[in-house]
């Protein structure tokens, strides 16, 4: 893929990935075929900040886990009232990193 397109994509979406993932992402995109660029643009990326806000407001009901596509954990969190609040508090610290990991997985699946 063209280096200019890759740099543009990374600059506009860098907040959706961990810092250590950016180098690997750039290498993957440089080595990808140009036809993958349109596919890459259509990959749904979740904003980690929005996920943190959702987790703060409705994390006790498991809404954050449902939004990440983790239905089983969302149901468990819902039925245990956020693990009696402990699970909810732990997720406040983990949800942004988990969102970034899932974004990277989605991009990797799109490039295959």
Q: Could you characterize the architecture of this molecule?
A:
- This protein is mainly alpha-helical.
- The chain has one domain.
- It is built from eight helices and no strands.
- It has helices spanning 3-13, 19-31, 36-41, 48-58, 63-67, 71-79, 81-84, 86-111.
- Helix 1 (3-13) packs antiparallel against helix 2.
- The two termini are 14 Å apart.
Summarize the structure.
The protein has helices at residues 3-13, 19-31, 36-41, 48-58, 63-67, 71-79, 81-84, 86-111. With 112 residues, the protein is an all-alpha fold. It has one domain (3-111).
List its salient traits.
112 residues, 8 helices, mainly alpha, 76% helix
Number of domains: 1
The amount of beta strand, in percent, is: under 5%
Helical fraction equals over 70%
Number of helices: 8
CA distance, first residue to last residue = 14 Å
Q: Give a count of the beta strands, DSSP E runs of length 2 or more.
A: 0
């Amino acid at each position: 893929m063209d280096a200019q397109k890759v740099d543009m994509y990374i600059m506009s979406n860098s907040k959706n990935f961990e810092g250590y993932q950016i180098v690997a992402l750039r290498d993957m995109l440089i080595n990808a075929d140009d036809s993958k660029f349109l596919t890459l643009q259509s990959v749904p990326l979740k904003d980690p900040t929005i996920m943190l806000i959702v987790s703060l407001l409705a994390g006790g009901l498991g809404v954050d886990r449902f939004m990440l596509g983790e239905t089983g954990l969302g149901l468990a969190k819902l039925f245990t009232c956020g693990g009696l609040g402990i699970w909810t508090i732990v997720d406040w610290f983990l949800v942004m990193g988990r969102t970034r990991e899932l974004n990277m997985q989605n991009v990797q699946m799109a490039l295959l």
